[in-house]
Specification:
single chain; alpha/beta; elongated
């Protein structure tokens, strides 16, 4: 299915009211849009898990995660810095995977 709409508009999600939603992922380049879409989807649907991408470090506290019932906050800069640190710590390895 292809649906188009404004992610901040709750009417966008009404097409999915009769469906069981296992996972909602908000990964735009805008922290505001990702947070607002997470709030809006809760007003329309029952979602089992929510993953939200955020760029600003000040969102790393647990308050936002708990308040919006977000299962996973993803911070790309934090993930990248971990990978760079691994490469610095192990310079002879070319492909490091975290488990």
């Amino acid at each position: 299915y292809a649906y188009f709409g404004d992610i901040k508009d709750p009417n966008t999600y009404t097409n999915f009211v009769d469906m069981d939603i296992d996972l909602f992922i908000a990964v735009t380049n805008s922290d505001d849009a990702n947070i607002i879409s997470t709030i809006e989807i809760d007003s329309v649907l029952k979602v089992n898990k929510k993953f939200v991408r955020l760029q600003n470090d000040f969102y790393q506290n647990d308050y936002l995660k708990e308040k919006l019932n977000i299962d996973k906050l993803i911070f790309p800069a934090k993930l990248s810095s971990r990978n760079i640190a691994s490469l610095i710590n192990y310079p002879k390895l070319h492909n490091i995977k975290g488990f």
